[in-house]
Amino acid sequence: MFIGHFALSFAAKRATPRVSLAMLFVAAQFADLLWPALVALGIEQVTIEPGITVVTPLNFISYPYSHSLVMLVIWGALLAFVYRKTTGKRDAFFVLAGLVVSHWVLDFVTHRPDMPLYPGSAKFGLGLWNSFGATVAVEVTMYAAGVWIYLTATRARDAIGRWALWGLIALLFVSYLGNLVSPPPPSVAAIYTLGLIAGALTLVWAWWIDRHREVVGGVRP
Ligand SMILES: [Zn+2]
Predict the structure, then answer these.
(1) Which residues surround ligand 1, an ion (CB under 5 A)?
(2) What value does the mean pLDDT take over residues 56-78?
(3) Is the dihedral of CA 163, 165, 170, 175 positive or negative?
């Protein structure tokens, strides 16, 4: 899943208005931020096999540290704990930990049975990616709902707050659609390089947006 993860981050802003949108992105995307780094290091494995699902040509051979349920529970608790210790914001613990774990649930729905419960376990997946129409319907609906919740929970403080947000909303949506119709990536190195760059870019962008928007009702993030 791709924009469905971002949908949950956008929606979570309403529940935890004091947490930056960038941090909510880190939490929901934690698995996919860690994954390209671990693939680059050779710790996790992916191959490119066009046709393996209708939607993605990626065969996720092994990713126990970034994508198993147990590891994501551990990563989620760690991330939420470090966040609470460094910022003093106590109210966000379960939202941040929950977003990290939500990645597993959403990927379990979309992936082939390649999602481990813990490193070395059997693998599970409901395979939404075997249906192009259902994948797009589910993700676009989630994305629209998440963005709508974010738009009603926050408002722009200036032009940057308005246009940087719409720029990111459009960029994520266009890259999602582009991904659906583009040819398979040329190499595994291309996958993790693009993954690392895109991950960093979206985080900086979300941080920038958050500084130029305020929560409706006056709670300053
Ligand atoms: Zn993932």
Answers:
(1) 31-32, 107
(2) 97
(3) positive
115 Cα to the center of ligand 1, angstroms: 9
In total, the chain counts a number of residues equal to 221
Q: How close is the Cα of 213 to the center of ligand 1, in Å?
A: 28
Distance (Å) from CA 69 to ligand 1 centroid: 11
Give the mean pLDDT of the chain.
Answer: 95
HEC secondary structure over the chain: CCHHHHHHHHHHHHHCCCCCHHHHHHHHCHHHHHHHHHHHCCCCEEEECCCCCCCCCEEEEECHHHHCHHHHHHHHHHHHHHHHHHHCCCCCHHHHHHHHHHHHHHHHHHCCCCEECCCCCCEECCCHHHCHHHHHHHHHHHHHHHHHHHHHHEEECCHHHHHHHHHHHHHHHHHHHHHHHCCCCCCHHHHHHHHHHHHHHHHHHHHHHHHCEEECCCCCC
Distance 109 CA to ligand 1 centre (A): 11
Residue 128's CB: how many other CB atoms inside 10 A?
Answer: 24
Percent residues over pLDDT 70 in the chain: 98
Q: What is the CA(2)–ligand 1 centre distance, in A? A: 8
Measured in Å, residue 34 CA sits from the centre of ligand 1 at 9
pLDDT for position 221? 46
Give the distance (Å) from ligand 1 centre to CA of residue 59: 12
pLDDT exceeds cutoff 90 at 81:
yes
